Amino acid sequence: MTVGIKTESLSGQALDNAKILSRYEINCDMGEGYGPWKMGPDAEIMPYIDSANIACGYHAGDPKIMAETVRLAKKYNVKVGSHPGLPDLIGFGRRQWNIAPEDIYNIVVYQTGALKAFLDAEGMPLSYIKPHGELYFYVERDEEVMKAVLRAAKVFGVPVKAAKGSHYEKVAKEAGVEFIQEFYPDLNYSSEGKLVKIFAGPKSVRTPSIIKEAVLLAGLQDQVVSVDDETLDLNFGTSPFTVCLHSDMPTALENVKQARIAINEINKSKGFTLKESYTA
Predict the structure, then answer these.
(1) Is residue 29 part of a domain?
(2) What is the pTM of this model?
(3) Which residues pair with 195 in a beta bridge?
(4) Is 70 exceeded by the pLDDT of residue 279?
(5) Residue 278 falls within a domain, yes or no?
(6) Structural domain count of the chain
(7) Is residue 213 included in any domain, yes or no?
(8) pLDDT score recorded for residue 280
């Protein structure tokens, strides 16, 4: 095993993961079409994942798509979290906006409330809130925005799910909100342990085989290789984590399939249960 570089960003213990997650999991951004436009192969992906981050209408999604995606998640016994984004349909929530923390709180509550209504209609719980796209990076840049998202999660009594981060972990604990920390195998990490924005740079497109190996390295050795080919310690320790994948990637379905092979291998090696298999 390579000796990994320790970074401030990836320090921390992810102790809430051990309380909330019963095994290593896969989550995926879902329901990100709009009207007649479809983004990812949701129906094909859903059987392979453990939780679905469903778009709530601001960066993508609409009432019909939300309802259909919730029902699809119910069919495959997949947990659901809200995936609120910035009010930016044209930019898919990935353009930088400056919005006051109180307005961030309002738009997260508004979007999550809409999704929760569809979950209530199907008798399903809301499992967490996971910011989308540029809202994630805004949270990282601005602690007051981070606190606004955590305050919104407190309204619904659910955890926040986001990339591993010691500062986010600390602020969430102070706010009294559980914090699920995840690993991103289809994105790059900087040498400082920060996520590199999607489609940023020549190494941004990661193949299914690379994704599988990244998941195995993270789960079995608690490490990730940065965009500069440096091995970083993730510091999940004995806590399981959830792997985040994007449904709008060119090879999204194969990415998820390869990640599932890796996650099953990790769960087997650590004595955890496996997700029920479906023939879809």
Answers:
(1) yes
(2) 0.94
(3) 189
(4) no
(5) no
(6) 1
(7) no
(8) 40
